[in-house]
Amino acid sequence: MAGRHLVGVSVASIYGGELPLPLCQVAQDCLTSFGQLQADLARHGGRLVLTDLFRPYRLQAELKRRKPRLAAAPLASYHCAGRAMDVALGLVGLDYQVLVAIMAGHHWFPLASGRERWHFQRTRDVGSGGRFASVAEAVRWVGNDAP
Ligand SMILES: [Zn+2]
Q1: How far is the CA of 55 from the centre of ligand 1 (A)?
Q2: CB-based contact 12:63 (threshold 8 Å)
Q3: pLDDT in tens, 3-43
Q4: Ligand 1: centre distance to CA 54 (Å)
Q5: Strand, helix or coil for residue 33
Q6: Distance of alpha carbon 127 from alpha carbon 125, whole angstroms
Q7: In this predicted structure, what is the pLDDT of residue 133?
Q8: How far is the CA of 78 from the centre of ligand 1 (A)?
Q9: How far does the centroid of ligand 1 lie from the alpha carbon of residue 117, in Å?
Q10: Of 51, 31, 42, whose CA–CA distance to 107 is shortest?
């Protein structure tokens, strides 16, 4: 059931307009946070501009084939769960530390490893205290666990 628990969002992209379908989707429980995050960034004089958000299974599998050491497999990527975004850091208009603080206020966090500074993810359903035991479970919840 592709598309289950996924909702569309409007967000600026590096592709000369808004982020296109199918990328412009988030997991249902992230929708409110995503909108509030954009508003909060705007209040601080910034703007959310993305290179990536949701990735369909096929797209992530292709990425893994092309960049085996850099990219995660579909069931190991929060992008496939609609819970990760890649920010165009140079276009946000805010210092990185300010961006990180605002993101954290909406439960979007960079990787603990410090790698891929542009990548932020919201791994838990904050409202329920953490619905998902694994990335794969989060991917299955949005029905994106097969090509
Ligand atoms: Zn990413």
Answers
A1: 10
A2: no
A3: 589 999 999 999 999 999 999 999 999 999 999 999 999 99
A4: 9
A5: helix
A6: 5
A7: 82
A8: 8
A9: 9
A10: 31
Q: Is 6-141 a CATH 3.30.1380.10 domain?
A: yes
Residue in this structure with the two tokens 């035991």, named with its chain if needed: 133
Tell me the whole-structure pTM to 2 decimals. 0.92
104: left (phi over 0), alpha (psi -120 to 50) or beta: alpha
In angstroms, the CA 139 to CA 135 distance is 6
- CA dist 94 and 47 (Å) reads 8
Distance 129 CA to ligand 1 centre (A): 23
Distances (CA, A) of 121 to 24, 108, 135: 15, 5, 11
At 74 the three-state DSSP class reads helix
Q: Higher model confidence: residue 112 or residue 46?
A: 46
- Residues in the chain, overall count: 147
